[in-house]
Amino acid sequence: QTLTESTDLGTVKLALDVAQLEAVEVVGEKTTVEVRLDKKIYNIGKDLTNSGATITDALNNVPSVDVDVEGAISLRGNENVRILINGKPSALAGFGSTDALTQLPADAIEKVEVITSPSARYDAEGTAGILNIVLKKEKTLGFNGSVNTTIGYPVNSGISVNANLRTDKFNLFNTTGYNYRDAPGNAFYDNTYTSGSYDRIIEDRDYFRLRKGFNTNLGLEYFITEESSITGSVFYRTSKSEDETENTNQRFINSTLDSETFRTEDEGEDDENYQFSLNYINNLDDDGQKLTVDAQYSNGVEDKTNIIQENNTLPNDNLIVLENVFEKETQNEYF
To answer: φ, ψ for residue 81 (rounded to 5)?
Structure first.
């Protein structure tokens, strides 16, 4: 029926229908960014883009933080950054290396604090600022865990395992990771000069880079009361890197090959770190005030080798340079 004018439909009766809900759940999510007076806090634990990624991948998503292909972390373009784990120095960044961070899954992070103007509480190290990586603490009772694997090409593979066993009185936790990366590459340069001894220099370079590392962290947290707990943990990491470079250099005079050299450079580095930590914490109120007491000892040993050999291949085959460099560094920290 088509109505072209106002029509009185009379009284329209509606039947009652009641639907009873079993439960109503109100879920509150943290904001992605919290801006405070002395720092910015990025809550990345709920970020789905970090699923299956590593900590260094997650840091790349934090504004003002960059991670290059070698894993070096910079803050606003400055690599002089101090890395803290749960507010304390950690063997994860032994000798300034961040290789171990590539073996930990991003799922293990609760938040990242970017502190660009550190207070007197922190050491002077890290002129660019401080990155404090706060790891998650599982609060679910019982046993739970996760396994993360990565596979890439050229060879870039890794596996990490997180496990937790929690009761009303204690929390036993472990994180273990292994990473293997083989990254070959090459470079070619052809330069022409209008002055100098040579008018053309061709450089052909091949390099091979191998990285592998293992780390594990085992700890136990004992709940004294609902507000206070004491935690003991031990951390161990070992890493090995091998870099091999082959460089052929040809020099021309008047478009005629005058001399040629072949240079090889082999670099190796072995790192081993371990750390023992003991921490007491008492949450004083709901505003974040707390009392903490920390004791920590860490030891790291780094061995480096660098072997360089350069030979003339044209016009004569003879050795030009042979250099062997061996370095060993030991680092101990107490606080």
So the answer is: -110, 135
CB 235 within 8 A of CB 86: no
DSSP per position, 144-158? EEEEEEEEETTTEEE
Position 125 scores a pLDDT of 55
What sections of the chain are H helices per DSSP?
55-60
With beta carbons less than 8 A apart as the criterion, state whether 131 and 63 touch: no
d(CA 140, CA 329): 42
pLDDT digits (tens, 9 = 90+) for 123-142: 555 567 888 888 777 677 88
Matching residue, tokens 């360089």: 308
Dist. CA 4–CA 6, nearest whole Å? 7
At 2-36, the pLDDT tens digits run: 666 777 777 877 777 666 666 666 655 554 777 77
Q: What Å distances lie between residue 234 and 41, 91, 97, 214, 301, CA to CA?
A: 27, 10, 19, 14, 17
Based on the structure, what is the number of domains in the chain? 2
Nearest one of 87, 86, 76, 85 to 116, comparing CA atoms:
76
Proportion of the chain above pLDDT 70, given as a percent: 82
Residue 152 within any structural domain of the chain: yes
Helix (H) or strand (E) holding 304: strand 290-314
Eight-state DSSP code of residue 55: H
CA 238 from centre of chain: 15
**Residue 8 domain-assigned?**
no
With a cut of 60, say whether residue 51 has pLDDT above it: no
Q: For residue range 294-310, what is the model confidence (pLDDT) as tens digits?
A: 898 989 899 999 999 99
Q: Is residue 12 part of a domain?
A: no
Q: How far apart are CA 279 and CA 231, in angstroms?
A: 5
Token reading at 240: 């090995």
DSSP-derived pairing of the beta strands 81-85 and 129-135: parallel
Residue 168 inside a domain? The answer is yes
Paired tokens of 169: 């009185």
Alpha-carbon distance of 133 to 84, in angstroms, equals: 6
